[in-house]
Design goal:
Blueprint: H1 23-30, E1 38-39, H2 41-52, H3 56-72, H4 77-83, E2 85-86, H5 113-121, E3 124-127, E4 133-137, H6 139-156, H7 161-172, H8 176-183, E5 193-194, H9 195-204, H10 209-215
Antiparallel strand pairs: 1-2, 3-4, 4-5
Helix pairs in contact: 2-3, 2-10, 6-7
Amino acid sequence: MQDIATNRAPAAPVEVSPDNPCPFLRGLVANGYVGGHIVPLPELTDTIKRATGKTGLAALFAGAQIFGVAMIANGAPFRSLREGAILDQLRNGPLDKHGAGSRILDQHAVVHEDEIARLATFGSDYSNPDGGTERGLNAAEIKTFMRANFQRAKDDHPWYWGILHGYYRIMMLGEWPVLLDILGKGDGKDRYLSVAEVKTLFVERSFPARIVALLDRK
């Protein structure tokens, strides 16, 4: 029997460490595209770059960005260059937003679906290229969502937030806007990130069929 969501034959689930907090990386590990511990930077870069579907100069630019982020993710860039990114040691690293993110996935890798429902409140209904309409967030709505997340965290940690203001805002650009770039549907200002697909990614750690087709391409 085939998995309708991914167009792949079902396989035994791969355990993903709670210390890997990135939903996209968790999906890659769970579906066997990369290992869950140390992954060489070229392998990780190539895998994620395939998922973007970009070609030519756009693919080269995307690959350079992915490589750079992966290199600093553990806080030891020279070690990462030599050995690879350690995907089960990302929490509390340089890219951990410490409460300034969506809070959909907590530090124990528990998914909070009330936070997915909160995400949906920032979106609108969009025409689904596959038919009908669905709830999603375009680039502007994602910016509003991230600002609200930052303000929520600031209210929780007011004494040091001014120091970290710029840093966390930069870190946020590597999460939801990247998911929009990879998973988004539609074009231009109407390109949107489907809330239903976000839920599937977080809860089931699986990708839509169009992304699987790109990842499976060699």
